[in-house]
Specification:
The structure is a single chain. The protein has 146 residues and is mainly alpha-helical. It has one domain: 23S rRNA-intervening sequence (de novo design (two linked rop proteins), Up-down Bundle), CATH 1.20.1440. It has four helices and no strands. 28% of the residues are buried.
Length: 146
């Protein structure tokens, strides 16, 4: 079992959740049970699944929770876009949130793709501190060739 609070990816994601909560405070009351709730749940799901994955005994179980986290990150990606297009998020606010989300998604992808032995423990906290890429377009998951 590993302390999820020490993982860089969890720390960054938790920070983003707090920023999402702050950003959605300005949404109209009519969105309280709509977009506000969806964005908050999707945002919180990522660090929650990372935390749960850290309690698992093997790398494969941990990886499964990372996949769930990545799915929630993709959901939040769309919800941020929707919030921007509905003019609930200013362009600058959207860009800042998206940039943070992009970084976290890259970190999740690196952890998911990391080779491991079948009985390996979840990675150390330093393993989650993935360097930024200079790639101009978001590439979150590698595609396997058939």
């Amino acid at each position: 079992m590993q302390d999820f609070r020490k993982l860089k990816v969890w720390q960054k994601r938790h920070s983003l959740v707090l920023r999402i909560y702050n950003a959605t405070c300005t949404f109209p009351d009519s969105e309280r049970y709509g977009l506000t709730s969806q964005m908050r749940r999707a945002a919180a799901s990522v660090p929650a699944n990372i935390a749960e994955g850290c309690t698992r005994s093997g790398r494969m179980e941990f990886r499964q929770f990372l996949y769930i986290s990545a799915g929630s990150a993709s959901e939040l990606d769309y919800l941020l876009l929707l919030g921007r297009d509905l003019r609930l998020l200013a362009e600058k606010q959207y860009e800042a949130l998206y940039s943070s989300l992009y970084e976290v998604r890259r970190m999740l992808t690196a952890l998911i793709e990391r080779p491991s032995a079948s009985n390996a423990k979840p990675p150390s906290p330093d393993a989650c501190n993935i360097a930024q890429s200079s790639h101009p377009h978001p590439v979150f998951f590698s595609q396997t060739k058939n």
